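Q: I have 199 residues here and want to know how they pack in 3D. Can you give me a structure?
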Amino acid sequence: MELIVISDTDQVANEADIINRLFEAGMRRFHLRKPGWGYKQMTALLSQIGPTFHSNIAIHEHHEIAGQFNVKRLHYTERDRFGTSLNKLIGQKYQGYELSTSVHDLEFLQSLGVFDYVFFSPVFNSISKPGYKGQLTDSFRLQKNAGKPEVIALGGIDASNLGKIKEMNFDGTAVLGAIWNSPERAVSNFKKLKELAND
């Protein structure tokens, strides 16, 4: 099962070093999400990440910097998605970009065929956002249709409940708090989650 890591929204000490080590430990997809950051902060962080890893990074903000860093993955928040024309999204697909977005209601999936994958959240009670309650019961099973984007579970996922994500039939899982709540253990926590995801 695909295991995606999302960045902390705030600055983390030695962040670029941790990201590089996560890639070296087998991370294949990293989402750089820094909603409060400006262009210079984003480019400074990307500059410290190994160039060989840039093609495995999806950026949530400042899409215009993608070309500078060989970034080929663009993420759209729900708000940005509603404000972006279908023609622009299709054009980005033709330019070779992989597109992702976020949803909080699975009914939207049918209208998101232009996207390669979507984050659905919150599945469980959030680790990084206290009070952000999970939406699904343990008996939930995702019904997938051919030709629709992959659905990635997000929200409250850690080593204790990763197995439930497989049972729920998601295509993959994304983690944030399970990695960044203890940055000094980020790599070891990732390795443990990766083992569980591959079981």
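Q: Anything worth noting?
A: Helices lie at 15-24, 39-48, 78-82, 86-94, 162-167, 177-180, 186-198. The CA atoms of residues 21 and 187 lie 7 Å apart.
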